[in-house]
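Need residues for this backbone.
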């Protein structure tokens, strides 16, 4: 029985280690919807990490939607003027990412950033 408990413990530690080792460490993912300050959203601090984690697997060279890359500020800016970006992350037009809506903190940050003028800040 002790051996069993010990092995179970080792397996548990191993599982939690593999899960954290590829974890994308940004504030929104760590704190979820509770800590979501949209008062002044920054492209570099807030938006780029969200896009890098959720969008560029497709929206970059080699990805399935490589013709509309989202790697840089200028890339992203093309989709903020007509609110295409906001509609898509909110699911008002075809949802992005297609696999499912992001957490509400990410959605609010992108929406707020566009509403604040989509600044390169
Ligand atoms: C699994 C792949 C995939 C992921 C991940 C993904 N997209 Fe897309 N995206 C697509 C495809 C495919 C299209 C083209 C079909 C369409 O317009 O719905 C597209 C189209 C778009 C367009 C319109 C492009 C144009 O030229 O009109 C925008 C804007 C967009 N996505 C934003 C995003 C954002 C923002 C994210 C991350 C939050 C994201 N996408 C994540 C596959 C993806």
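Answer:
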């Amino acid at each position: 029985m002790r051996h069993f408990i010990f092995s179970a413990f080792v397996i548990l530690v191993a599982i939690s280690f593999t899960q954290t080792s590829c974890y994308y460490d940004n504030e929104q993912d760590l704190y979820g919807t509770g800590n979501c300050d949209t008062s002044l959203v920054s492209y570099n601090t807030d938006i780029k990490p969200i896009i890098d984690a959720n969008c560029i697997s497709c929206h970059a060279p080699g990805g399935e939607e490589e013709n509309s890359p989202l790697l840089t500020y200028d890339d992203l800016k093309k989709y903020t003027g007509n609110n295409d970006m906001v509609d898509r992350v909110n699911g008002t037009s075809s949802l992005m990412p297609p696999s499912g809506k992001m957490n509400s903190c990410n959605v609010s940050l992108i929406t707020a950033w566009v509403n604040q003028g989509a600044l390169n800040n």
